[in-house]
Design goal:
The complex is a heterodimer of chains A (276) and B (575). Chain A has 276 residues and is an alpha/beta fold. Helices cover 43% and strands 22% of the residues of chain A. Chain B folds into 2 domains: 147 residues; 317 residues, ABC transporter involved in vitamin B12 uptake, BtuC, CATH 1.10.3470. The chains are: A alpha/beta (276), B mainly alpha (575). At the A-B interface, helix 2, helix 3, helix 4 and helix 5 of A face helix 17, helix 18, helix 19, helix 20 and helix 25 of B. Bound molecules: adenosine-5'-triphosphate and magnesium ion (MG).
Chain lengths: 276, 575
């Protein structure tokens, strides 16, 4: 199996705080890998380093042979990396369909002049884009809601729309930041199946940050654990569950009697109420 | 928390509105406004403002009552409205009584005897008791308006709004109708007074709108269904008829309105033009550009320097050649300013552009650059546009002869402005529906996310900025020919602020909203001379009220509208 993305010694500091500390990381092609870790461990920050959101201070990230740390976020997205956000960031005042169409931006090439004149090529391009957007909307189960303003969609639909928008860029690597936050068990189950479908049917590599242990352990092929910005463990779900350092990292923050999974559930309940 | 007694709340509302009313009196608004009628011989604009205050006191109190009691209780609501209006009237009465005893003028310049006469309806201090009485009645009506069932409330509100609109614009309609011939002239004099409506006119408009509105609520669905049932060709021709009608009015208006109003209409058209330009930068891409006037100035000066037959004229080329050059120059300066500052976000961008606007104005008017731009003397002798061939340039200060049609009058320039506005509106509309428009809106919503989806921020923002600048340049170019001369002093910051405000009032990102906003903020104050004295006070008040009551603007953009419709449909389903 080839590696899609390799990160070596990635470090990110905020003033004195080292949010991500010399993390080595690898994502094999067409795999589903996860990153877990307690609150503030630096997971989202690591995502941001990959997407060029805030440049990482040290280290190197190579995506399909291309070093990315000198590229702007829009260039990185053109390489085939797309993401969703922990606290949903849709274009609130645009319709669901328009949100997805923005995701297709990189595949549309008409200049502003030809758009004003309205050449047949532009019309053709728009028609194809619209059909594709509609298809993606159906794909994530939002059929018929394309005209709804994004901010008026129900919470679960917003999460799915964000995934549809990310898919519109035709990514090879999809980064999902806590996709199950705020979902009930039923929705979580659907989501798990959906993520698997993305990989199996579309061949998209998935990199997941997740607090829901059932989701993580259920679908990940490989798990990396961060704590205080440092990688403290990695391996298969079974290995991670047994790893004493991981258990300690979690229990150290939770009540001593609680198991790891319950500590997590408690956390995600907290995030849910925050998000709502 | 213990719930407030609704009567006490009504008293408070009344007192607060009373204080606001006194403020309106002390800034001199009531007195100045009294010179204009809303309804001839019955109610002046000054009295109207006070009545409106009392009415809203009643309305607000009534709404408070409903929310305090958690339901509509007609008697309590009406009592609350009455009390609130009464107290507003009492506060004003107190002002009159105090004013009769103490010389308030020492402190408040506008506390004149005329003001007291206006307040007591010329009946003298002895009859000051009518004020609370009127207040109570107005408050009662305000409270009652909340209780009306929807089916009555809508027509009445519409009729009131229409009557007020007709009263404000009565000067315009009157002149236009009088110029139509003697029959129309008679009708005009029947409906409109010197300023404002006649009593008959008021009744006709009021009842007319109510009738139409009622008819629409009964038959409107059928008519709408009828229109949608029409075959495609029929619907198309219907649309063509509507557009033709709008075009006919828009194009014919300055011909029949006389020179003064024509001037006002040109000014409005120019602001529409600039509003459409800034709407791309601000409304679509969300870049708050307070230095918009800089590009306006650049366009004006380019045309001035290129076409003037005065001392500073450089090329003496025709208007039609100079305008595209001016647009390109403005666009290029947009790029030059845009590149360094577009990395800045939000508020900082506003400040940076604001600085740029001031720099351009100061440079253009400076003694240092006077050899090129005329300094404080400005550039004069700008050649009027000519349809036909221009005679040769002979010497300085002698206009070139136009062999053909010279477009010198404001009415003529108006057509140039309208054609330009239509072109810009078309460009703006096409761009909004394109991938670029979506990228702009995405940047407006969340630029980090837009960038992560592959939108090149610098390129996209720069394009919005340059197009906005180009259209401002076009506005400036037309302005220069309209006035025939340019002075740096006419390129004030206030021009930028006007344009920003009209976009906000009209509805961000909405193309028709720009037109509505320009008519409301630029046209109205010009037509109502009395109002223009308090222009900025009213601007401020309008903006605040808009932000509170209707943040999406008077004519929101398609998306917002579609959305509102959506929620209505949903609510309908649930109900
Ligand atoms: N822009 C920033 N400026 C300063 N500090 C930051 C910034 N972003 C994140 N941090 C800090 O970096 C650390 C890592 O944050 P990060 O958001 O990556 O955590 P996380 O693992 O995603 O946590 P969570 O599970 O709560 O999402 C935290 O201590 C956070 O406060
Ligand atoms: Mg996070």
């Amino acid at each position: 199996m080839t590696t899609l993305l390799t990160a070596t010694k990635v470090t990110k500091r905020f003033g004195g705080l080292v949010a991500v500390n010399a993390v080595d990381f690898e994502i094999p092609e067409k795999s589903i890998v996860s990153m877990i870790g307690p609150n503030g461990a630096g997971k989202t920050t690591f995502f941001n380093c990959i997407t060029g959101f805030g440049k990482c201070d040290e280290g190197e990230i190579i995506f399909e042979g291309t070093p990315t740390q000198r590229l702007r976020p829009d260039q990185i997205s053109r390489l085939g990396i797309s993401r969703t956000y922990q606290n949903i960031r849709l274009f609130a005042e645009m319709s669901a369909l328009e949100n997805i169409l923005v995701g297709q931006h990189i595949f549309l090439h008409s200049s502003w002049m030809s758009a004003v004149i309205g050449t047949p090529k532009v019309h053709q391009e728009e028609r194809i884009a619209l059909a594709e957007a509609q298809r993606l909307l159906d794909f994530v189960g939002l059929k018929g809601q394309g005209d709804m303003m994004a901010r008026n969609l129900p919470y679960g639909a917003q999460r799915r729309l964000e995934i549809a928008r990310a898919l519109a860029t035709k990514p090879k690597l999809l980064l999902l930041d806590e996709p199950s936050a705020g979902m009930n068990p039923r929705e979580t189950e659907d989501l798990t199946a959906f993520i698997r479908q993305l990989r199996d049917e579309l061949g998209i590599t998935i990199f997941l940050i997740e607090h829901h242990m059932r989701v993580v352990m259920g679908i990940s092929e490989h798990i990396t654990v961060l704590d205080y910005g440092e990688k403290i463990a990695e391996g298969t779900p079974a290995e991670i569950q047994k790893n004493p350092r991981v258990i300690e990292a979690y229990l150290g923050r939770g009540a001593a009697t609680e198991g790891m999974a319950t500590a997590h559930e408690r956390h995600s309940d907290k995030t849910n109420s925050k998000l709502r | 928390m213990k719930k407030e007694n609704f009567l006490w709340s009504a008293v408070k509302t009344g007192l607060i509105v009373g204080v606001v009313a006194i403020f309106i009196c002390f800034v001199g608004m009531v007195e100045v406004f009294s010179k204009r009628d809303v309804i001839e011989k019955l109610i002046t604009l000054g009295q109207f403002v006070l009545l409106a205050a009392m009415f809203s006191a009643g309305f607000i109190a009534s709404r408070h009552t409903s929310s305090l009691l958690e339901k509509n209780k007609p008697v309590s609501n009406l009592v609350a409205g009455l009390v609130a209006g009464l107290f507003t009237g009492l506060v004003l009465a107190l002002l009159v009584v105090v004013g009769a005893e103490v010389n308030l003028r020492a402190v408040f310049l506008n506390a004149t005897t005329t003001l007291y006469d206006v307040l007591t309806l010329d009946k003298g201090v002895g009859n000051v008791w009518i004020l609370p009485l009127i207040g109570a009645v107005a408050g009662l009506l305000g409270a009652a308006s909340l209780l009306l069932p929807q089916i009555l409330r809508r027509p009445i509100t519409q009729a009131l709004v229409f009557v007020i609109f007709m009263a404000f614009f009565s000067g315009l309609f009157r002149v236009v109708m009088i110029n139509q011939g003697s029959d129309m002239s008679k009708a005009a004099k029947y409906l409109f007074g010197q300023t404002g409506l006649t009593l008959e006119g008021t009744l006709i408009f009021f009842l007319g709108v109510i009738a139409v509105s009622m008819l629409w609520s009964y038959k409107g669905k059928d008519i709408q269904a009828g229109v949608t049932r029409l075959p495609k060709a029929g619907r198309l021709s219907l649309r063509v008829i509507v557009y033709a009608l709008i075009a006919y009015v828009a194009l014919g208006l300055p011909q029949v309105s006389g020179p003064f109003i024509a001037q006002v209409i040109v000014t409005v058209a120019l602001f529409v033009l600039m509003g459409l330009g800034l709407n791309i930068t601000l409304g679509f891409a969300g870049l708050l550009d307070l230095g918009f006037v800089a590009f306006y100035a650049i366009g004006a000066y380019t045309v001035g320097l290129l076409t003037s037959y005065g001392a500073f004229g450089l090329q003496h080329i025709p208007f039609w050649v100079a305008v595209p050059i001016a647009v390109l120059v403005a666009m290029a300066s947009g790029a030059m300013l845009g590149l360094p500052v577009l990395g800045i976000r939000g508020d900082y961008l506003a400040i940076a552009t604001l600085g740029f606007g001031e720099i351009v104005r100061l440079l253009a008017g400076s003694d240092f650059l006077a050899p090129f731009f005329g300094g404080p003397q400005g550039i004069i002798g700008i050649q009027k546009p000519c349809l036909g061939t221009l005679g040769p340039f002979i010497r300085v200060d002698v206009p070139r002869v136009c062999n053909g049609l010279e477009l010198g009058k404001p009415q003529d320039i108006y057509y140039i402005a309208v054609v330009s506005a239509v072109i810009i509106a078309f460009v703006a509309w096409r761009l909004r529906e394109s991938r670029l428009g979506r990228a702009w809106m995405a940047i407006r919503e969340d630029e980090d996310v837009a960038e992560a989806l592959g939108v090149n921020l610098i390129q996209t923002k720069l394009l919005a900025y340059m197009l906005g600048a180009a259209f401002a340049g076009l506005g400036g170019a037309i302005f220069a020919t309209l006035i025939g001369s340019i002075f740096a002093t006419s390129m004030q910051l206030i021009v930028s602020i006007n344009v920003v405000s009209l976009i906000i009032v009209g509805g961000m990102g909405s193309i028709p909203g720009v037109i509505v906003g320009a008519i409301a903020l630029i046209g109205l104050p010009e037509l109502l001379r009395e109002v223009s004295e308090f222009r900025f006070l009213l601007y401020g008040a309008t903006l605040i009220i808009m932000m509170l009551a209707k943040p999406e603007g008077l004519w929101p953009s398609q998306a917002t509208r579609r959305e509102l419709h959506h929620t209505e449909v949903e609510a309908g389903v649930k109900a």
